[in-house]
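Quick check before the chapter quiz. The format below is the same one you will see on the exam, so make sure you can read both the input and the output lines.
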Amino acid sequence: SSGINAEYGDSSSSPNLRPTPKSLVDHDSTIISNPELQKLVRSNFPKSKLCFAYGSKVLHQLENLPTAATMTDLIFVTEDPVGWHEENFKKNKHHYSLPMRMMGPSRVALVQDIRPYCFFNPFVEVDGVLLKYGIISESHLLKDLQNWDTLYIAGRLHKPVLVLHQDPAFRGSYITRNLRSALHTALMFLPERFDDIQLFTVICNISYCGDIRSILQVENLNKVRNIVEPNVQHFRNLYESVINDSPFIERTDYGYCQAPKTEKNLLAMEKLLPSKLLYVPEDGSRPHSRTFNFDERLDTKHQLFRKVAVGDYRYPEEQIKKIIFKPSLVQSFKGLFTAGFSKSFKYSRAKLKKAKPKTIEVAKASTGDKLPALAQEGQLMSHEYNIYRLTLSMKNPGNRNNIIVSALVVVGALIYILYRQEYYQRRAKQLQ
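Here is the expected output.
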């Protein structure tokens, strides 16, 4: 149509931000009932600004049928982490590992404040339901939703979740902003014409790109397909408003089409993208990359968009991996300390069971265009459109290389934990 093929001089007509839907998933389609979870949260946990459930216990996933041993994943968003942990210590002190119980609520909140600013208690049984719940402060969540600071929780909110509680004062418009960022980031990696499966596969894949669990192959490499294919309607419902409000994408009889990827259009899209994705070093130095050698310096964002316009996606792809890698690595180290070695080992073993050697098949899209290939570490490789069937043989997680890498990670985690313990002891003395 004429509208979608036009060039846009600016993005002043950016979509109005809308409040968060009461639930991002239809209650009748979830595996665990919403009233049951709402009652559990209300009766057993401190009040929060936002609480939502996610994962295979909320949405059906291929190859990952939930069992009684499958944890239900929850995230609590609180304005006051210290106060939340103080109240939770009174109600659920046994949920915390021994080192955390000895440290007390205020120091637990300090541990939480290490990037990616989350604290998790896994393998907790509450009213007969096995839970893993995380806590994040509202300020850090809003920063992540707006700028993609770590993509640790913002990435989870790219996918449908079940909202169990939302305080009227919570700024739900930031969740809409995050969805808008995910949509327009995905457009950079998609061809001119594409369908639902292609769009939501790229969106879902963003949050796994560069994740340490994917690099160490303790994550099922079919995970993106397992999430998207059975839940296409949920994704449609979630992204309906931001798609309708975007001047860069339009529905067609076969799926979607987007405005041509000219430098002018991409610059107009800039306000719809997260700031961290577009970060260019002020000194004009080359972006640090372990994977690609950049031929030219990126002095301005104009050069970045010029490269994307001609099909060079390396810079935004590397930026996504850089955003995700370090927070996911730090959280893995934190988990060994905060959850305890026993629960951490149990959690890793459960992940490894899911990450059996498999073959990934990327199906041909109904439009005749080719799906972006899903690379082994979960990275986006959408510039390889000529491949419509990509078979990736996943390495056995128990091979020698992975054992060496895992051992190095454990040693690094121990060093990190000892360092942080010393840091908090010094910090505690200063506070006294």
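If your answer matched, good. Residues 5-23, 26-31, 288-297, 357-404 have pLDDT under 50 and may be disordered.
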